[in-house]
Amino acid sequence: MPSVQVYNQARKEVGSVDLDDGVWAVEVKEHLLYAAVRYQDAAARQGTHKTKGRSEIRGGGTKPWKQKGTGRARHGSSRSPQWRGGGVVFGPHVRSHAFKMNKAVRRAALRCALSRRVSEERVVVLDAMDLPEIKTRQVVDFMGRFELPDMLLVLDAPSDNVLKSSRNLAGVTVLPADGLNVRDVLRRRNLVVTQSAVASITDRLGS
């Protein structure tokens, strides 16, 4: 069972916490991480791409020229796919790109992502994360104290001051514990979690 130090916002040790082996120390399976990221990216696609078929294009109702006697190829409409400005054959249409991924597989992938960050020693556990006012400088100073070039900050309860203070920082993502996902864990190299969020994540993903 891995044990990590618990720090306060001033980077002073205030204790330690044992992480559940079944959530934070499982075997990392690359194919699960790939499948989970692909699942999230597919669900996030708008799917609003659209081309018009020949029946949707305006005009072309009159036969361009008579069937025989001109020496040219036979045509019934100037909106057929062979013509410039005509319809598109087998073009994309509005649809959803999402596909199904079982909940057990999604949870297993998230456990793999968390275990990877623990094995890389890129997990910082805080006793609490709270800011007295909305100020981006406070988040920048916090990252400087912990020497973090980027971070995914996971809070048990949403904090308006933390959210608004960090939203202008390109390398910072703030999520509630129940919104934790594989893509954001892998997107940021460092994972910062409050102690209460660790308990929530363990309850959510543990057996």
Explain the overall architecture.
With 207 residues, the chain is of the alpha/beta class. The chain has 2 domains: 3-44 and 99-205, Ribosomal Protein L4, Chain: A; 51-91, no CATH class. The chain has helices at residues 21-24, 30-44, 103-119, 136-145, 160-166, 182-187, 195-205; strands at 3-7, 13-18, 123-126, 151-155, 172-176, 191-194. A 6-stranded mixed beta sheet has the order 2-1-3-6-4-5.
Topology of this structure?
Blueprint: E1 3-7, E2 13-18, H1 21-24, H2 30-44, H3 103-119, E3 123-126, H4 136-145, E4 151-155, H5 160-166, E5 172-176, H6 182-187, E6 191-194, H7 195-205
Parallel strand pairs: 1-3, 3-6, 4-5, 4-6
Antiparallel strand pairs: 1-2
Helix pairs in contact: 2-3, 4-5
Mean of all residue-level pLDDT scores:
95
Poorly predicted regions: none
| Proportion of strand residues | 5-15%
Largest sheet: 6 strands, mixed
Number of helices, where a helix is a run of at least 4 consecutive DSSP H or I residues: 7
What is the count of structural domains?
2
- State the name of the first-level CATH class of the largest domain: Alpha Beta
Order of helices and strands: EEHHHEHEHEHEH
Integer-rounded radius of gyration? 27 Å
What class do helices, strands and sheet pairing give? alpha/beta
Gap between N and C termini, in Å? 15 Å
Helix content class: 25-40%
Count of beta strands: 6
CATH second-level architecture of the largest domain: 3-Layer(aba) Sandwich
**Strand order across the biggest sheet?**
2-1-3-6-4-5
In CATH terms, the superfamily of the largest domain is Ribosomal protein L4/L1
Topology-level CATH name of the largest domain: Ribosomal Protein L4, Chain: A
Principal-axis shape: elongated
